[in-house]
Structure formats: C-alpha cells, structure tokens
Amino acid sequence: MRIVVKVGSSSLTDDQGHIKKEAIKSVSSQLAQARREGHEVLLVTSGAVASGVAGLGLTERPSDVLSLQALSAVGQPQLMAAYNAELKTHGLVAAQVLLVPHDFVDRQQYLHARDTLGRLLELGCVPIINENDAIANNEIRYGDNDRLAALLAHLVSADMLILLTDIEGLYTADPRNNPDATVVSVVAADDPLLSVSTSGAGSDRGSGGMQSKLAAARIASWSGITAVISAAINDGAVMSAVNGENVGTRFLPHDRELSARKLWIAFAAEVEGTIVVDQGAQEAIVTRGTSLLPVGVVSVEGAFEVGATVEVLSTTGDLVARGMSAMSSQEVAHTRGKRTAELAELDMKEVVHRDDLVVLATA
Q: Collapsing DSSP states into helix, strand and coil, what is residue 97?
C-alpha cells in the first residue's frame, strides 16, 4: 500500500513548543515498520512554527502572520533534524518537500510535484512534507496541513490517509464535556458525520481541530481513499490502521472520485460568496449535471470577482454545490433571472460552468 501519514503540532511538541523526542521516535518507528512490511510511506508533519517558538525562546506563540512565517523558518530545520536522526537509526533517508496549495491547482505544478514525489519513493526515501509557511503569500490558515495531507494523498494516488492526533478519533460528543461520549468506529462515504460542525481550533501549539480532520477525511473519501483518524500516542496506530484493525475512526472511500482541481474547489478553496438558486436550477445541477445559468439565480451574497469559489445554496439554505464563478458578484446580480437569449449582447452565458462546478447534494 501507499500510505500518507499526518501528525500535528500538539502531538509533536510540549507546552513550551519543544519537540518531544519520544513522539518523533514513535512516528519514525511506525513509518519504518510500515516500510519493512513493504508499504510506501509519506509523512506530512506540522510542528515547525511551534518548534520555532521554542527555538527563539519565546514565552508564547504570536498571532501575526509575519511572525508565524518567521518562526516556521526557524523551526523547520530543527524539525527535519529530529526526523532525520530517528529515521537514520532505521536505515532510512528523509527527504524534505515543502508545498503550497497552489501546487494542487496549477496543472504543471501538480504534475511536477507528483513526479518528484514518485521519484523520491522509487529511491527509497521517506518524503517529509510540510506547507511552505515561510514564503506563503497568504495567511497561515487553520487546518492547512490536514487538508494538505488529503490533497497529497490524492496527488500520489495513496491507498490510505492516516491522521495522527491527540485524541482517539471522532467522538459521538465532546469527551471533555460528556463522559458518555464514545468513538465512532466507521463513517460511511455519505454519512452526515463527514460534514458535522465541530470545534474549529485545536491546541495553542497547533492550528487544526476536528473540523479540519473531517474536511481532510472528506477530501480523501471523495478521492477514493480510506482515511483513519487515530491517537498519535498509540505506538501501533499506523500498522493497526493499515491492517484494518479497530483503531480510531475509519472513513470509507466514496464511489465517486473527483479530480484534484475539483477537490480543491469543493473542499479546500476559501469560499468568497453565496449564490441562491431556485428549485429548477437546483434539480438541473443535481440530476442533469448542467452549468448554473443566470435564469436560475434568485440572489447573490458577498463581493467576489471572476474565478472566486462560491457556494450554491437552495432557497431553503441547503448546500447544493460549490464552484468557480465565471462572473463577478456584480455581474451575477445584474443578470440573475434572465434567460440566455436576453444575455446574448453581454456575452454572458453561465454563472458557473459545469466543468468548474462540484455537486455536493444528493439527488
């Protein structure tokens, strides 16, 4: 199997941001065991910013973007040194790969990243991937590495995505407040649990929470990939997940697989606006896979330009689809309700072309 493992900052660092050697040792040992069993492994690791906090002797993690980016530059080499040292004891060589979300949107970048990672696996390396936070031109967003791991799993055609975190898995309720909460062992591809609202933020040392884990699991599921959320403290978590044992929460793959570009539109891109459509447009999009035309638009919310990702909602507020708009919000507002023939002079046909539209509602 080809496996992508992701581990978060809260599992790798202590309260002061120092890297926990035992955590790095455990993760490295599990990757080595998977390799001995004949599997290919890639690791997506957080912890650079948290490690940078300790490296500079700061008493707390700052919140401004430039400081976070600077800290990631300080912490990343320390993080890689720790992994290199542990993997070396197992006769393995780590290879650092820094990616940004754009690598999954631009076709040439996507293919180049795929080929490079494939070659590293052929050479017997363990690719260790992180987001290139130090030079990112946008804010370091919550949950990026969870989503990054899921998109990476799609990129390399992985068989499984394993998200190692500081809890056992997805619970029926918040275990901190409800002693009767239990771990959900299996989530089906169309289970509403994949889109439930959960706490967004993780610990002070990390940026992701269960919400970003669920988003990552959904991306994996819609890529035809099995995802597992399990506790990083379990030294056998990786192989237990690979062997199909009852560990953490297992998310089953969807029978509908999306392209990398559509995965990005559906689950990873920032939504900049909302378009409400009537029942006729909703049925045409969901059942016939048509483009969204102005005639079916009821209203538009938010200010956005051409190319922005928007949510398409029904008049009752249900999510129908997400797509990349072919019109600005002003153009949508100006053309809504008009038939194609009325728009011939304006050279405007679709609000969202079907090639840029991902249906998320069920027929």
A: strand
